[in-house]
């Protein structure tokens, strides 16, 4: 990762309470075995020619002789990485790294030709290269996701150039045998190519794709399995720029579900089964990806009221602050505090359907009566306002004013692929299934198909 056009996306700065660093002696940057001969040579220079010739004429052991004539090369330039923090300006970062006010001014003026210095967001990586202890002579700045601005000090100012980050595309094949949940799967395939935390992202995405077909909190069994083909765009440092599933197969309770992506011209990317039926429902299966802690019931003991009463909704045990998503596109009909619901949002959808999201800690900006919301849009955050013992989301589904139990309802899927796109989809499907067949769908050991581990 030492190439001049590459950035490591790490913050090398110590601690949050950093101080401006004083000038470092070049020696401090050098290992001891280099420092010793350097000191020796310096002493020789100070001692003058007389001492020099004296030493030369002396008979010394070979090793010592070698050391005395060792002349070090100038210390190699050092690269320091820094990351723009929240509320920090580019000028402040340069100041931390010992740039003079004049140099900062000149540099910022050059940067301005490419991008407003104020528009750099927190997280932007800056690499400074120069002699140890001195002002950097090269500054590499992340302009956007795909390009870097290279600035080099010359006698007449800073020379600038835009460098494109080279992107490599690969296809990752993974299989997983489920032990208890998607999170606890025994992985096979190109496991070594996974970055840190990358598999966890795929778990979220995979659960999203099948959210309408499989309730991952209830329906997953030990011995279920999946295999996926993922196309990734990778940066030189191995971080993932983008990723998308090419195909997914999930074996769940004896059936195999497939998900093949297809983008209608001008439309959004959607997942379909092998026949071209949409996997997505008209409604999302749940507004938060958490376990149901209390289902729909006409008679339930209420922990706060300490009496039996109907529970006309579904509770999800999600932590405080979890984002709550609108389960379908609609219009906000209530947004604010409403009795036992606490802080809540109600949305009107088509077909006389209304959804309610209660006990929120906050309501998102722009969510007010009359506002249009999209499916999956974050409308607020989980809390425990109103009549609630602790943070959870209370979700209600009403049709023509009557509360309905979503876990027993058979809600329609999104429309299947239109006939005019079908032939193209089938070609894509066959290619995608061919790719994913490069990794085996893990088979369950005979003693592995046991009773449900999640219910
Ligand atoms: Zn509830």
What does the model show?
- The chain has 455 residues and is an alpha+beta fold.
- The chain folds into four domains: 31-68, no CATH class; 78-164, Nuclear Transport Factor 2, Chain: A, CATH 3.10.450.350; 168-281 and 418-448, Nuclear Transport Factor 2, Chain: A (Roll); 292-403, Distorted Sandwich (Glucose Permease (Domain IIA)).
- Helices cover 18% and strands 32% of the residues.
- The protein has six helices and 24 strands.
- The chain has helices spanning 32-57, 62-68, 90-96, 101-112, 198-209, 419-436; strands spanning 78-83, 125-130, 138-144, 147-154, 157-164, 168-178, 185-189, 225-234, 240-252, 255-263, 269-272, 292-294, 297-302, 307-311, 314-316, 323-325, 330-337, 343-348, 353-358, 360-363, 372-373, 378-382, 393-399, 402-403.
- A hairpin with a 5-residue loop joins β8 and β9.
- The site of zinc ion has 5 residues, from loops.
What does the oligomeric state look like here? single chain
Mean pLDDT over all positions: 80
Tell me the strand percentage band. Answer: 25-35%
The total of helices stands at 6
CATH architecture of the largest domain: Roll
Q: Could you give the distance between the termini? A: 47 Å
Determine the structural class based on helices, strands and strand pairing: alpha+beta
Q: Return the CATH class of the largest domain.
A: Alpha Beta
Number of beta strands:
24
Percent of residues in helices comes to 10-25%
Q: H/E order of the elements?
A: HHEHHEEEEEEHEEEEEEEEEEEEEEEEEH
Q: Largest sheet at a glance?
A: 8 strands, antiparallel
The distinct ligands, each listed once, are: zinc ion
Rg is 31 Å
Shape: globular
């Amino acid at each position: 990762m030492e190439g001049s056009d590459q950035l490591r996306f790490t913050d090398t700065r110590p601690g949050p309470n950093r101080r401006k660093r004083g000038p470092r002696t070049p020696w401090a940057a050098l290992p001891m075995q280099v420092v010793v001969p350097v000191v020796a040579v310096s002493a020789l220079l100070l001692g003058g020619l007389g001492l020099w010739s004296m030493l030369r004429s002396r008979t010394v052991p070979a090793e010592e002789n070698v050391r005395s004539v060792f002349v070090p090369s100038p210390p190699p330039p050092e690269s320091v990485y820094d990351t723009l923090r929240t509320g920090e300006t580019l000028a402040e970062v340069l100041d931390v790294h010992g740039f003079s006010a004049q140099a900062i001014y000149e540099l910022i003026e050059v940067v301005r030709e490419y991008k407003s210095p104020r528009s750099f967001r927190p997280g932007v990586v800056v690499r400074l290269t120069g002699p140890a202890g001195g002002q950097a002579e090269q500054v590499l700045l992340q302009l956007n996701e795909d390009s870097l601005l290279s600035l080099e000090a010359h006698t007449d100012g800073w020379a600038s150039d835009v460098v494109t980050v080279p992107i490599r595309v690969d296809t990752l094949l993974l299989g997983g045998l489920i032990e208890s949940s998607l999170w606890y799967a025994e992985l096979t395939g190109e496991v070594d190519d996974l970055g840190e935390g990358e598999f966890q992202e795929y778990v979220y995405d995979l659960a999203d794709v099948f959210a309408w077909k499989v309730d991952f909190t209830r329906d997953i069994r030990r011995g279920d399995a999946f295999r996926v083909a993922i196309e990734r765009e990778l940066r030189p440092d191995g971080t993932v720029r983008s990723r998308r599933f090419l195909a997914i197969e999930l074996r769940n309770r004896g059936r195999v579900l497939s998900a093949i992506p297809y983008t209608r011209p001008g439309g959004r990317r959607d997942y379909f089964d092998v026949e071209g039926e949409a996997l997505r429902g008209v409604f999302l299966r749940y507004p938060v990806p958490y376990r149901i802690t209390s289902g729909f019931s006409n008679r339930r003991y209420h922990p706060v009221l300490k009496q039996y009463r109907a529970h006309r909704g579904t509770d999800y045990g999600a932590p405080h602050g979890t984002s709550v998503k609108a389960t379908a596109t609609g219009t906000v009909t209530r947004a604010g505090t409403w009795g036992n619901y606490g802080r809540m949002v109600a949305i009107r959808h088509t077909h006389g359907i209304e959804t309610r999201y209660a006990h929120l800690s906050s309501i998102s900006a722009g969510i007010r009566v009359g506002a249009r919301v999209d499916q999956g849009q974050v409308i607020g955050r989980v809390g425990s306002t109103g009549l609630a013992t602790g943070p959870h989301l209370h979700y209600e589904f009403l049709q023509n004013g009557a509360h309905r139990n979503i876990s027993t309802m058979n809600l329609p899927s999104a429309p299947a692929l239109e006939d005019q796109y079908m032939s193209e989809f089938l070609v894509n499907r066959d290619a995608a299934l061919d790719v994913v067949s490069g990794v085996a769908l893990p088979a369950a050991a005979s003693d592995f198909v046991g009773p449900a581990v999640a219910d």
